[in-house]
Amino acid sequence: MAEDLAGGVAGAAASVDPDGPDGVRMTWNAWPRSKVEASKCVIPVAASIAPIRASPSLLVLPYAPLRCKPPCAAVLNPFARVDFAAKIWICPLCFSRNHFPPHYAAISETNVPGELYPQCTTVEYAPPPIDAAAAAIPPPVFLFVLDTCLIEEELGFVKSAMRRAIGLLPDHALVGLVTFGTQVYLYELGFSDLSKIYVFRGTKEISKEQILDQLGLSAAGLRPGTAGASGYPKARLQANGLLPSGSVNRFLLPASDCEYALNALLDELQTDQWPVEAGNRALRCTGVALSVAAGLLGACIPGTGARIIALVGGPCTEGPGMIVSKDLSEPVRSHKDLDKDAASHFHKAVKFYDNLAKQLVNQGHVLDLFASALDQVGVAEMKVVVERTGGLVVLAESFGHSVFKDSFKRIFEDGEQSLGLSFNGTLEINCSKDIKIQGVIGPCTSLEKKGALCADTIIGQGNTTSWRMCGLDRSTCLTAFFDISPSERSSQPGSTNPQLYIQFLTNYQNPEGQMRLRVTTVTRRWVDGSANTEELVEGFDQETAAVVLARYISLKMEMEEEFDATRWLDRSLIRLCSRFGDYRKDDPASFTLHPNFSIFPQFMFNLRRSQFVQVFNNSPDETAYFRMLLNRESVTNSVVMIQPSLLSYSFNSPPAPALLDVASISADRILLLDTYFSVVIFHGMTIAQWRNMGYQNQPEHQAFAQLLQAPQDDAQMIIRDRFPVPRLVICDQHGSQARFLLAKLNPSATYNSAHEVAPGSDIIFTDDVSLQVFYEHLQRLAVQS
């Protein structure tokens, strides 16, 4: 068993891009034909998709796509059957016949357009703009919302991060500034003679209309430009990309024009001057500040890609979105309070942010949240806005911590390090007629476009075939869940098509501001009858299955009270093993699993112990943060969150993957643990002693210096390519921070078995079962008749 697992880890590291050219991974690559067969498969039929993943081989076509006749409207793709003589193509999804338009007259077997190349199952269309107004590329917009209820030192860190960001912004990007403490201050950057500020009370909810009235942007003054306020960029922009009225450039100015003014404002910015009585928290009106920011963007630039970047340093204690009272004797809500329904402000705050999410999605704008504080700031309540708008989220302990500083800088970088931030995305899913869509988990919002393809059961954002993603980037991932419901006609023998087809259409505004349409069409095989278990097994993807289950139970834990995730996972795993394992009834020793399933029990063992299921010891903010990242990252990254990777460095062998087990600890080894959120370099006892004696600085001990440096270099490589930037922990065996490693290891040696431990290794003080015991129980239960 252990050999299998180590081999699995090493094999996974060596393989090439697991997402393939399409960026689509499915739990099952051969699909059962009926609902009953699908339910026997235990793991839901789902796909993890990366809508705009960067791909070196991507073909970009400079014309508009050719679509099938409505209601299908699928785009022409390599799976379409083409009759070159009659100039007709047959849609693989709905089998309709479509005539090619006149400008395709020259096609033949030897001369086909790019979208029909067999290897181009993913293409991107870049149609030319219709007129000059559409050709005007809107500038990116950044509205900074800064918390000033901070101590001097923290505010200093915020200012230096802001100065660095302003220096990195493209010159034409529009920038605005809002600060908040007990009240909200909106700066009119366009008024250069002296600093002009609009102040809003932080105690009560302000409607969008009231905000606009106070700013002099109310409907009467703004009629000419708001033709498309409900969402897409219909608002006619002038040649300079701005609305006709001078309203926008009062509050949002090109970075090149306001760099000096902004730096001057930052120099003058003080911590919130409102007095804080002893025994009280500072009064902080985060909710009103975000309302003002959303209202301003909605009036000035509806439908244009814009980001509200909120830097929050503590909990909201007044006004809408409040999560705790100002009285320090009241602690911030914990998981226990939420379970007992004892968190008095929680539901009200979530409802407020839910409405804010609807407003931002309607305007097409994004909320990014950078929360840096030792206590909670309300990420759990704000999760709904960040996730619905496709925003970025970073949780750190201080604005001076590298997790915040380096992540914040990454948003504004371009070139190799750029995140590829894009705006105004919509995703449409179209599929063969026996497939229904249950919904999507991930950073998006349902557009409530109901149709024949919607399933009766809903998972996540459902009841639609189309989703809005106000913000998305190269690494954004969504999970789509499918339901198999064959119609009476298709289940008759003879009429069946052995292949099923699914098409993902993503319309978005790329980082350069151009509108693009990415089209990915995938095909998979139907498997008939319950006899063909081999075909199902051959098509099982255990990494994707583990990640999909983690996302699914995270959702269930949030939506359903009293949901027992551990028990649900155990039952599912036992059912899966008794359905697909090879064994003789009631003989645990005979139990074996196909290589496609062999690491799956280990994934489940680690998922049961992970922060997604065991919320004890994490605050609701941390849990919300971990789940938001789990829901938006690629399968490869999400697997690392569930089951961290461990590398071992020693004198007598090159760096190699090690078992995630306490037995991997040794006095003369260095271990590098990657849990996605943190990277841990762990020095064995002997190595730590030699390092403390300074052997690495002596010329005759070059090899030791290199051994110490190797994990540092590998850690930096991991950190450089990841967003949010992980926390780096450097620790020694038996040191206090060694807990970061010990918490993740399989407890094969505990205080009960201390007499069997190899010298120099370690034990874990726990009563948790080890992987070995877990696997023995699984074997026994799976073979029961």
Automatic annotation (TrEMBL):
UniProt membrane topology term: Peripheral membrane protein
Domain Sec23/Sec24 helical intervals: 541-639
InterPro entries on file: ADF-H/Gelsolin-like_dom_sf, Beta-sandwich_Sec23_24, Gelsolin-like_dom, Gelsolin-like_dom_sf, Sec23, Sec23/24_helical_dom, Sec23/24_helical_dom_sf, Sec23/24_trunk_dom
Domain Sec23/Sec24 trunk: 138-412
Keyword entries, A-Z: Cytoplasm, Cytoplasmic vesicle, Endoplasmic reticulum, ER-Golgi transport, Membrane, Metal-binding, Protein transport, Transport, Zinc
Pfam families: Gelsolin, Sec23_BS, Sec23_helical, Sec23_trunk, zf-Sec23_Sec24
Domain Sec23/Sec24 beta-sandwich: 423-527
GO cellular component, one term: COPII vesicle coat
Main location: membrane
Compartments reported by the entry: Cytoplasmic vesicle, COPII-coated vesicle membrane; Endoplasmic reticulum membrane
SUPFAM superfamilies: beta-sandwich domain of Sec23/24 (SSF81995), C-terminal, gelsolin-like domain of Sec23/24 (SSF82754), Helical domain of Sec23/24 (SSF81811), vWA-like (SSF53300), Zn-finger domain of Sec23/24 (SSF82919)
Domain Gelsolin-like, residue spans: 654-741
Protein name listed in UniProt: Protein transport protein SEC23
Taxonomy of the source species: Eukaryota, Viridiplantae, Streptophyta, Embryophyta, Tracheophyta
